[in-house]
Design goal:
Elements (H helix, E strand, L loop, with lengths): L1 H34 L13 H13 L5 E8 L2 E9 L15 E2 L5 H14 L18 E2 L9 H5 L16 E3 L7 H8 L5 E2 L11 H15 L3 H10 L13 H4 L6 E3 L5 H7 L3 H4 L1 E5 L2 E4 L2 E3 L2 H4 L2 E2 L1 H12 L3 E2 L2 E2 L3 H9 L13 E2 L4 E5 L2 E10 L2 E8 L4 E7 L6 H9 L4
């Protein structure tokens, strides 16, 4: 009995010690994160492009982000197209408007567009069950109850499928490693993320899981790879020749190196999730900033596209132009109207709590209603936003995983273009 009691007490003490260490590490991380360099907010309202130039020069000089590219279109024409900062830690190569960055989750806009192309070109219906296309797809809830999930549920993040964070942070590859087949990849990962968190269609909860499933569906329906389909049917028709899932030698000659603050929101996650993070992925640490090797995500349908801000803007122009850009139609007007009008009734939420539609999100900040999507992860940040009332498209990309997209977007949107 005494031995058992001793073991119990030892276990309790051990748990307390480990818990205390974790709390201490957490507090240290918070302190370091607070003290780390942050992107400064404008001291006053920025009223014109010249003042915006000065602000962007300031934040890139402070390496928050080290480089940024901004594109603004109004009524289908470019009204602002500039880049600032450097692509690398040694400040050898300056950014320009053709510099490429990873777009991360802004890729979902292209995946959603591809799905609606299937509606127009194949015997395909967004209200059909996912299991009609993926034979292994039969999720259940925690009590073992099965439910039908439709393509619509996936598009609108209403499937109930669980998040793949933080595990997906380790699903990476390097430039010299071959990409993976998305159907095979999702089929392999699916069993570990198939227990539903809620009944499909009852609420919305953002997850990459749904868009990985959509990528596999696109491959099943078209018979070609997800990446080839998007490239051939969206990127090429829109003239996005500096963008893609694979960074060509031409793209790599002008591609920003990824970076993030040494202590950031991602630091504890990547250290815990990614084995040998600093040895395998980090190239240099300079002035409190971590620089990394150029990496790809393995899960391309939710996060795989790369390119300059100018190219990212084009999917926003398609939305405003009811499915076409420069006379090239990639979606019907009816399907674009459906994308624009699917949002729930009522006032849009703020950027950190937007309404979720068919790939697109809707939110309201400082009296302006936006429709768009952001992207962010270790090394890069991106934002695409459409202001329908003003016929404006804003996009920007930077090589900073901590890029303050909300401040930047509100700053740019506040200018009378």
């Amino acid at each position: 009995m005494n031995v058992k009691l001793l073991l119990v007490k030892t276990g309790i003490i051990f748990s307390i010690v480990i818990g205390s260490i974790l709390v201490l590490l957490g507090l240290i991380s918070i302190i370091l994160y607070i003290s780390a360099p942050k992107m400064v907010k404008p001291k006053r309202e920025i009223k014109n492009s010249h003042e915006l130039d000065q602000y962007l020069q300031l934040i890139t000089k402070n390496n928050t982000p080290p480089a940024i590219s901004v594109s603004v279109f109004k009524n289908g024409s470019s009204v602002y197209e500039k880049a600032f900062g450097y692509l690398d830690p040694d400040k050898i190569k300056q950014a320009d408007v053709n510099t490429g960055f990873a777009w991360w989750s802004a890729t979902k806009l292209f995946t959603a567009t591809a799905v609606f192309q299937l509606v127009e070109r194949y015997d395909f219906d967004i209200d059909r069950k996912v299991s009609d296309y993926l034979e292994y797809f039969h999720p259940v809830d925690k009590n073992g109850n099965s439910y039908d999930i439709t393509i619509r549920h996936l598009l609108m993040h209403q499937s109930g499928l669980p998040s793949m964070v933080p595990d997906l942070l380790s699903w990476l590859r390097f430039q010299d490693e071959a990409p993976v087949n998305q159907s095979e990849f999702y089929k392999k990962k699916y069993p570990g993320y198939s227990t539903l968190n809620f009944k499909p269609g009852t609420k919305s909860k953002y997850t990459n899981n749904a868009y990985l499933a959509l990528g596999a569906v696109i491959e099943t329906v078209t018979g070609i790879s997800y990446e080839d389909y998007v490239a051939e049917n969206i990127l090429v028709p829109l003239g996005m020749n500096k963008s893609g899932f694979v960074r060509t030698p031409e793209m790599l000659s002008n591609f920003a190196e990824p970076s993030t603050a040494l202590i950031s929101i991602y630091t504890p996650l990547v250290i815990l999730i990614i084995k040998d993070w600093f040895d395998k992925y980090v190239t240099k640490t300079v002035h409190g900033r971590t620089w990394m090797k150029k990496i790809y995500t393995l899960y391309t349908p939710s996060t795989g596209l790369n390119g300059p801000a100018h190219d990212l803007s084009k999917i926003g122009i398609v939305l405003l132009n009811k499915g076409e850009q420069n006379g090239i139609r990639i979606l019907s007007k009816d399907n674009v109207d459906l994308m624009l009008n699917i949002f729930p009734e009522g006032e849009p939420g703020k950027k950190n709590n937007p309404q979720l539609g068919f790939g697109w999100k809707r939110w309201k900040e400082k009296g302006v209603t936006f429709i768009g999507h952001a992207g962010g992860g270790p090394g890069y940040g991106a934002q695409l936003a459409v202001i329908p009332e003003k016929n404006i498209v804003i996009s920007f990309v930077g090589n900073d995983g901590d890029l303050n997209k909300r401040v930047l977007l509100n700053t740019i949107a506040g200018i009378d273009w």
